[in-house]
Every structure is written in C-alpha cells, then in structure tokens.
Amino acid sequence: MPLISRNALQVVFGVFLFLLISACSNTQKISVSSTSATQQQVSSEFDKAIENSVTYDGLFTVYQDTTDGSVKLQINEDQIDQEFIYFGMSSNGVLDAGHFRGAFRENKILKVRRYFDKLEFVHVNNSFYFDNESPLSRASAANISDAVLFSTEIEAEDKENGKLLINADPLFISESLSQIKPTPNPRSRPGEFSLGRLSNEKSKYSEIRSYPENTDVIVEYVYDSPYVTGSTSDAVTDGRAVSVTFQHTFIEMPENNYKPRFDDPRVGYFITQKDNQVSTSATPYHDLIHRWNLVKKDPEAELSEPVEPIVWWIENTTPTGFRETIQNATLAWNEAFEKAGFKNAIQVKVQPDSADWDAGDVRYNVLRWTSSPNPPFGGYGPSFVNPRTGEILGADIMLEWAAFRSYTRADDLFTGSFDFFDMHESMDPRYCSISQYLSEDRQFASSALLILDDAGEEDIDGLEKQAMTRLILHEVGHTLGLNHNMQASSIYSPEEINDPEFAAENGLSGSVMDYHSINVNSDHDAQSLYYDLQPGPYDVWAIEYGYSPALDDPEAEDARLEEILSRSTEPELAFGNDADDMRSSGNGIDPRVMVRDLSSDPVEYSADRIQLISTLLDGLVEKYGTIEGQSYQELRNAFISIMGQRARQTTVISRQIGGVYRDRAFIGQEGGTQPYTPVPAEKQREAMSQLSEHLFAPDAFEESHEVYKYLQEQRRGFDFFGETEDPKVHDLVLGMQVGVMTHILHPSTIKRITNSRLYGNTYVAADVVRDLTSAIFDADASGNVNTFRQNAQVEYVKVLGVVLESDQHDNLAKSAALHNLQYIRGLMEDKGNVNNETMAHAAHITYLIDEAIES
Ligand SMILES: [Zn+2]
C-alpha cells in the first residue's frame, strides 16, 4: 500500500480517511484519534502527541500522523524487559541492491529496556545455553555482548495507564533494527554498482499492520546518489534513486508447551546453534532443530490430526495450470507425517483473488510466485523461528518462474565464464538452487524427447509436471525444517532406477532434498520416472525423528529418539548436506555426496549419459536445424543444454578420484563402519579411464563437429557490440577439461590421496598424476596433435607448473608435478615426423616446461 499522500489528507479527513485505510488493509481496529478537538478533550501530553493520528492497535500500538505520515510507537510498561521475536524480510527489492522479494533476512530476539528517560532496543545474544540449576548460570552474562541497536528519549508517558510513547521514525527510517545496505565488498570490481546514501527525505512507510500477536512495519528505503556508481540491471530504473522495501515484524514470544528437539549429526535439520556453557561433554551442543509445533488432538491415538495443522496458501499469482500439481505435491508430505503419528498434518488452500490479506503477512504461509529479472534462485523455502526454542512460527516459499522459462545462459558458455562447477550458495544455507538445476535438466530432457522420439506436447507436459512436483516437494521440505541431502541419490543401482516398475514403487532416491540429475532413458519407451514424485525413505525417517511426539519421561524419550537415529546406517537413509557435497573442488570428501549425480554407480550412470549426449548431438541439426521460419536460437539453446550436461557428468565422474567414503554412525551402532574408507582403487581408476575416453581422448568431441556452424544467437539490438558472435567452441571444451584437471590436482584432493594411504588407499599421487598425463598426452605422443588436445596439453603443463611452485600443495604433489613435466618434455623431444602445427605446439610445451622447472 502506498503511503497516504499528504495532499489527500489535507483535503479530506475523518470518515474518508477511515474508509481509505480500511479498503487497503485488514488491520484490526483502525481509528482516527482526536479528529476534532471539540469532540475530544486533549487530556494529556500523551494524547496530545498522538493527536490527529491513525491508530493501529495490536502487540505494539502504532500511531501514524495523518498530516506528515510520521510514526510513533507505544510501548506498555509490562512490555519493558520482555523478549520479543524480531523478524526482518525484504518485501521487495532489486537484486542489484542485494534484496529480492520474500528474502528472509533477520530472525532474532529483541528486548526493550528503560534507562532513565530513554528506551533502548536491544538484540539479545542467543548463542549460549546455561542450565539454570548450575551456579555458573549466575555468570551467564560474562563476556557476552548484547547489542543496543537503538536508543531514544521517551516522548510522552501515561503513567496511569502504563503507556510510553516514542518517535519511531529514527527507529524505522534508518537501518537500526536491520542492516539493509550491504557491507561494501572489499573485493568488488571497479564499475560494480553500490547503493547511495539512505535518504530520510524520500524513505517512507509503505504499510503498517498490527495484530494481537504481531506488529508489521513496512518501509520503503530510498538510496540516493548524485550519480550512478556502476552498471545496473534493467530492474533498476535509475541508479541514482534505488528503493528497497523491507518489513520489520515484532512477534510476541509464544507461551506454549513446545519442547525443543535437539540436533543430531545423522539427520539434516536446520538448527539454531547454541553452546552449552556448563557441560563437560566432548560435544557441548545445545542445537535446536527447527520444526513446527504439532500436537496430537488425541494424544492416545496412534494416528491423530494435529491440534493446529500446517496450513499452506497457494498465492493468487500462481499460474492456474499448475495449481493442482502444486497442491498435490504439498499434500504428498502428509504421508511422511503419518509415520510420525499425524493425519492431515498439512493443509493447502488457495488465496482467493479477492483476498484482503497480503502474502507478506507472517500469519499466512504462502507458496508465492515471482518472475524476476536475473533471479538469484529458483525456489527458496525459508521459515522463521522462535530463537529460544527452534519452533517454526511461519514460512513462505518463493518460486521463480525462471525455472520454467527458456535457458538463457548461452553467452557464458562460449566466453569461458560458464559456471561448470556449481558454486556453493554462499550467502545463506537456506538459499536453494534446485530450480536452476531443474531448469537445465528439464530442457535437456525436452531436447532428448524431441530428438529421440519426436515427442509431442503431452510428453513435454508430463515432464514439466514431474519437474514442478519435484520443485514443490523440495521447497516444502525446507519449510518443514529439512536441509539438503546430497547423498540420497546414491542408494539405488542404475538398473533399479531405469526399471519403471521399481521406480514407480520406490522412487529414484532416498530424498527429495537432493539435487540429483534428471533420469532420462535413452530408450523413451523404457522411460521410468524423471523425478521422485513423493518424499523418499530418508524424508519419512527424518520427519519421524523431528515430529513424532515426545514421551514425558526424559530418559525414555532419549531412548526413543536414539532408536530412531540408530536406523541411520540403513542404506536408504544415507545423508550428507551442502557442507559435505563435492560440487566445488576442495569441498567435501565423499563422492556419494554430490549434486547432479544419480545411482550407486555414478561413473557408469554418467558414462551412459555421455553416450546419450553423443546420440543427441548427432541428431541435433536434423531436428532443430530444419524448423523453417525461425532463427537458430533454439538449436543453440538445445546444444548448450546438452553440452552443459556433458560438463556436469565429467565433473561427477572426477569426484571419485581421491574420494573417501565417510560414515557418521556412532560407535557400536549396528551397520556402522569405520568413519573413513577410501574409494576402492579400481573405482578411482575406472573414473580416470572414463575421463580419458570422454574428455581427453583425441576423438572425444568428434561427434559434435556437424553442429558448430549452426550455433548462431539471434541478433537483438546492439547486443553483439564489443563482442564477436562466432561460437568459441575451443573455450567451451577447454573449460570442461581444465575443471577436471584442476579438481584432481587440487591441493585438498592430492593431500587426501596421500593421507588416505594410511587407511587403505592404494591409488597413490604419483600414479594419479601419471595416469592423467597419459590421458592427455599418450594417444598422440609421436604424432600430430589436434586443436582440442593442443589446448588441453598446454593448459595441463601450466597447471603442473603451478603445483610445482604452490605453497598449498604437499611435497609428493610437487614431486609428481616435476616428474611429469620432465616426462612430457621427453615426449616433445621424441616427436617424429609431424606437421608444422604440432612442431609449434611441441616448442611451446617445451618452453613452458623449461620456464617452470628453471624459474
Ligand atoms: Zn533446496
């Protein structure tokens, strides 16, 4: 709702104002106080201060002046020193400013304290736990700093009624409660956009809502700058005046019988992390899992409805064709809750078009849709909690239409900036990339359907419904408290996954919280599931751990939970989250915990996928190059989605080399193994051999030759200005190759290869590096070298040179690098009768090696 303009209020008053506000908001008990001095005597300083204000009664009573829009906040005496939950969310933003609609930003405990004639807003530290029975709890404040975020003079006090009033503009039209403007990044590049200064003049209230249990103040922050500081996206209208709308919500601390449940390393919940300061345990953790407060209506019944179900609203922005699929996918979680004793734990309703509430209202859990320029995510399922207990109080799911739009990262693929190697979501573990994965995979599968089977709309529709189901299952899973499980896709064999009957019964993986590869059969008639369509065995088990009702007796309860956890060694319950997964080189150790992989034999599965990719590349021109009357853009997009898959699959294969399986079973747990077991040497060698064949061999990119001359992007305005539009195929191929060689030669990989020899690894660093050298050099050692291989060989020699000089690699890695550089130099000396190009190449390699060794 826009700020009520000053002009409107100067002209009309009273009744009209009341109607205006009522029409735009469902806030309770709005009234205009003291509309006329004759009607109501100004009885006190307090009343005078709020004269001519609109009143929003609720948890905190808020007064907004009807002349200038300024806001005053009433704090009751009994609210002083009480804890409140503060929750901050971007209501709207531009990504250039680090904000986007629905981004949950802050969830903390606030207290209002009185200091003589002032009130202070204090952020209370919640990182430590002191058992009140321990005398140490008397020192619980020692060396722990609460943060005084804001302090202001009390403007008026009504002692009789215990009411205090402050001018709230400096509190809200400022960044006191929550930092809005991002901290400058010391590594920001010249020309990068940054917000100007906060303008007190232009910033204003968008909306105020107050209810008995929560008060929302929504502010449009305007950042001003005399000139534009850097390049912006089209979403920014004018870089000199950029708005971010931010919602501040105060929530009453719930008083209920909710009992926290604690985290365990074997199951993956989001947590509020706290250290137990009085414990002498080796793991003094008091980490609260995030979960909803489900209580059985009938505590005696094995299966009961909850007193308060989790209610989801499908926002009225949702494309109608998908609403049923979204509803069914959300409700599919109910089956998991049945194992935890709850019937109909989740309900789904559709927000009517005429709804008088806003999806930003924290009392509603809403599945929301946006179609943003440059979306930072494709789906995002955040929840906010009571930081004292971990109880989830509300959640939203932000869905991006980008997941179902065409894949448009074409340029990056040819300029070498294409992100072959998925970066970890750095900002917040709740950020979720599932939608980008689904988008890429869905387009790949569409191309496969078209090329292999000439598939019609019905087939594509079926594929999209599965993708949507999977997206919703995943995001709803987040809002139930579950974090990612990137190991779940490793539990079934390739044969099982490709068996339609098996897949229909068991699904493809252990959890919908994985980012596994889409399952595409090269034989369309034998196509099993593309994606899981219901929560997997891990999900059901995790919900049982989190939600099954507690026993009253603490000891019996501990034993009951331990019994559930003791099942963690069952193969279907395998778990590893983002912190474990190997998508970025240097992160993770266990190749089973990986994104974009599938099956218990990811090397075989990926090699199969690469075969399929070859077939598709062979058929690409025939299928897409014959659609008359359109440009080659669609052919180009299909090529990119197919080649993107190829990069993903070789990355998956590479993770076996130097891999170590890790087991988080507790000591004595049935089915547990030692914590660390190296990947068997033959599996590592098999991965190396597949990489040699599909990534480095002289004919590895043979099949795509026919397509290169068609890879044209459709011209748009002057978009090619400063660029050259011809496809940079060599950059594309080299990008894939370098990604794999730098992973294998990453300091962490190569150190792990040596350290894991102490507990069984037999594929030693010297052999790994020699095998990689062989894959890149041996096939054409004495003959002519093709252009892809020339690139790979030069780049590999450079990488070995870096290893030799690096202070992060161990000595064994350096020895292997030196030895292999000498070996390669020998190969170059032995070049026989080769063409001019290969002679030049050999001279280049020899020069680089001499530089590396002699410098
Ligand atoms: Zn996710």
Automatic annotation (TrEMBL):
CDD domains reported in the protein's UniProt record: ZnMc_MMP_like_2
UniProt-listed SUPFAM superfamilies: Metalloproteases ('zincins'), catalytic domain
DUF5117 domain sequence ranges: 126-297
Molecular function, one GO term: metallopeptidase activity
Pfam families xref list: DUF4953, DUF5117
InterPro entries the UniProt entry points to: DUF5117 (IPR033413), EcxA_zinc-bd (IPR032534), MetalloPept_cat_dom_sf (IPR024079), Zn_MMP-like_bac (IPR034032)
Domain EcxA zinc-binding: 462-781
Keywords for the protein's UniProt record, in alphabetical order: Hydrolase, Metalloprotease, Protease
PANTHER family, sorted: PEPTIDASE M1A AND M12B, ZINC DEPENDENT METALLOPROTEASE DOMAIN LIPOPROTEIN
Protein's name according to its UniProt entry: Zinc-dependent metalloprotease
Gene source species: Rhodohalobacter sulfatireducens
